[in-house]
Amino acid sequence: MVVVSKEEFDIGKIADSGQCFRLKRLEEGRFRAVAGNRWTELQERADTWVLDCSEEEFDGFWRDYFDLNTDYAAFRAAVPQKDAYLTAAAAFGTGIRILRQDPWEMLITFIISQRKNIPAIRACVETLCRRYGEDLGPEYGFPSAAALAAAGEDGLRACALGYRAGYVLAAARMAENGMLNLAALTELDDEALPETLMTVSGVGVKVASCVALFGYHRIAAFPRDVWINRVVRERYRGRFPLYRYKGFAGVMQQYLFYYARCGEPCAAG
């Protein structure tokens, strides 16, 4: 077991922040995190989270996955008090961290996410993993490119992917035949990375930004979905001050998204 302070680390908020779809609430105060072909459970206590893994596994994977070495309080300190909305959003979202997730998993997940709400995305991803991922015991791993390519479009449509099945199949084939080398994209700068991702069929600006932020930990990325667009339109007169958060605007995006979806009195869905 590994014990982690709850200060600046809130699994429940991370699970609802729109960045991951395999962080599962098993019961009140208990979660299971699944990443690639790994999983661990987290149990809430008064001031800590207890991870069901060895110190070696924690230091070798989960510490980095949960981005526990990054100072998020420093990011929040950059928010000026005059920005009352973001001040409230950052306070409400304290404990959210940008997970360091696998680029392949993020590419497929966010292709699937288009025009779907979070519960529907989770359901699709779970079906995909059960049918084509490795059996890990209590969970299934995320399917490889080879597994998804072999599934074919009909097999992918059977996972409730709809029109997205063709995009997922195309991405899988590109990754399988070497046309798309996601590991090599880590060498690209913040501008070139999303541009290259958008060469994949079905990947537009929003999906590319999400993959950059959540799959490559490019925290300068600022994905804009319907929630963020509404906030920017209604609270910032159509122009969010990205210049204030140069290099870490993606952290602000998570605070805004989570607050708009879960915190404002009018939030729903």
Kindly describe this structure.
The protein is of the alpha+beta class. Among the domains are: 2-70, TATA-Binding Protein (2-Layer Sandwich); 103-215, Endonuclease III, domain 1. It contains 12 helices and 5 strands. It has helices at residues 11-15, 55-65, 72-76, 84-92, 103-112, 118-132, 145-157, 164-177, 192-197, 205-215, 226-235, 249-263; strands at 2-5, 23-27, 30-35, 38-44, 48-51. Strands 1-5-4-3-2 form a 5-stranded antiparallel beta sheet. Strand 4 and strand 5 form a beta hairpin. The radius of gyration is 18 Å and the shape is globular. The mean pLDDT is 95.
Short description:
The chain is of the alpha+beta class and 269 residues long. It contains 12 helices and 5 strands.
Outline the secondary-structure elements:
Blueprint: E1 2-5, H1 11-15, E2 23-27, E3 30-35, E4 38-44, E5 48-51, H2 55-65, H3 72-76, H4 84-92, H5 103-112, H6 118-132, H7 145-157, H8 164-177, H9 192-197, H10 205-215, H11 226-235, H12 249-263
Antiparallel strand pairs: 1-5, 2-3, 3-4, 4-5
Helix pairs in contact: 4-12, 5-8, 5-10, 7-8
Strand content: 5-15%
CATH architecture of the domain at 103-215: Orthogonal Bundle
Number of helices: 12
CATH topology of the domain at 103-215: Endonuclease III, domain 1
- Principal-axes geometry comes out as globular
